[in-house]
Predict the 3D structure of the following.
Amino acid sequence: MVSVGYTYISPLGIYSKNLKSPKDLPQGAKVAVPNDPSNENRALLLLQSQGVIKLKAGAGTNGTNATPLDVAENPKKLKIVELDAAQLARAA
């Protein structure tokens, strides 16, 4: 394989009108993630990198896409809601 071109991957962020950090999420909070496989995977990996959830070993890596079914630990009992990407901004 050879590279045929470069691509731009937009940074992914966590947005809230009221919270300063993902660690400030209250018990049972709803967290909306994109419902398309690649961006949902990115969102779940971001939540994991912030220490909010923990995914099953290997989920979201090596060509696999993580889904809410791959959440192994969810200490705050967050409700992960899958939404169309166009609806995410209005859901905040």
